[in-house]
């Protein structure tokens, strides 16, 4: 025996079709479609906002890397940054926040040199064992021990990441626009259907 077809609200579509209540059925379908599109729009807006936040954070990293590069003594790729102007203020103002941002984003193998040691802001339970921050080491750590070549490589990588995120952002915006257009179309269909239903009922009443 076949079960009656219902929606999540428990409405029997077969019964409505059998009674010829097509207008109400169309209104229900369009109302549900608008609701679903609303949910998708909210999710898509959140995705766009998250992408914007990611790009903003990557731009902060890029700005920090450029600040490090500006401290380099010369154009020799193997020259360490601390051979130039790298002092306690540079650690506090550049190194700590930059390494914090890199760690937050989870950027892997930024410089290609896993032997570079530096500092980040100590988190809960982390010792302040680096002078001004917590000592860290790895291929995504930036400090005065980084070379000009490593910083330039990191800048190139981060620029590539920003470009990729920007391309994805454009796709996100296109999808957002498409969802918004579909929602507007569904609202228009729903409004027209409701008007036809109201007009039909008004005609019936006038003819009574």
Structure description:
This is Secreted protein. With 208 residues, this protein is mainly alpha-helical. It contains four helices and two strands. The two termini are 41 Å apart.
Mean pLDDT: 86
Low-pLDDT residue intervals, each spanning 5 or more residues? none
Shape: rod-shaped
Task: Summarize the helix and strand pattern as letters.
Answer: HHHEEH
Q: Strand order of the main beta sheet, please?
A: 1-2
Task: Give the % helix.
Answer: 55-70%
How far apart are the termini?
41 Å
Strand content: under 5%
**What Rg do the Cα atoms give?**
30 Å
Give a count of the beta strands, DSSP E runs of length 2 or more.
Answer: 2
Largest sheet: 2 strands, antiparallel
Summing up helix and strand content along with how strands pair, one would put the structural category as mainly alpha
Number of helices: 4
Organism: Castellaniella ginsengisoli
Protein name: Secreted protein
Brief description of this entry?
By secondary structure, the chain is mainly alpha-helical.
Write the layout of secondary structure elements.
Blueprint: H1 13-18, H2 22-69, H3 88-105, E1 117-120, E2 134-137, H4 148-207
Antiparallel strand pairs: 1-2
Helix pairs in contact: 2-3, 2-4
Organism: Castellaniella ginsengisoli
Protein name: Secreted protein
Top keywords for this entry?
about 210 residues; about 5% strand; Secreted protein; two-stranded antiparallel sheet; single chain; rod-shaped; 2 strands; mainly alpha
């Amino acid at each position: 025996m076949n079960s009656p077809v219902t929606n999540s609200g428990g409405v029997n579509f077969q019964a409505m079709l059998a009674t010829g209540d097509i207008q109400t059925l169309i209104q229900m379908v369009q109302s549900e479609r608008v609701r679903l599109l609303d949910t998708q729009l909210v999710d898509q807006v959140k995705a766009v906002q998250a992408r914007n936040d990611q790009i903003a954070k990557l731009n902060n990293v890029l700005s920090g890397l450029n600040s490090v590069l500006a401290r380099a003594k010369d154009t020799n790729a193997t020259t360490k940054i601390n051979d130039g102007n790298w002092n306690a203020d540079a650690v506090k103002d550049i190194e700590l926040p930059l390494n914090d941002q890199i760690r937050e984003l989870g950027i892997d193998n930024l410089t290609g040199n896993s032997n570079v040691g530096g500092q980040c802001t100590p988190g809960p339970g982390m010792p302040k064992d680096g002078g001004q921050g917590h000592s860290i080491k790895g291929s995504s750590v930036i400090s005065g021990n980084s070379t000009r070549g490593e910083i330039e490589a990191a800048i190139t990588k981060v620029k590539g990441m920003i470009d990729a995120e920007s391309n994805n952002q454009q796709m996100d915006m296109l999808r957002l626009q498409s969802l918004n257009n579909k929602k507007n179309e569904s609202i228009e269909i729903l409004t027209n259907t409701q008007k036809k239903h109201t007009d039909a009922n008004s005609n019936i009443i006038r003819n009574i």
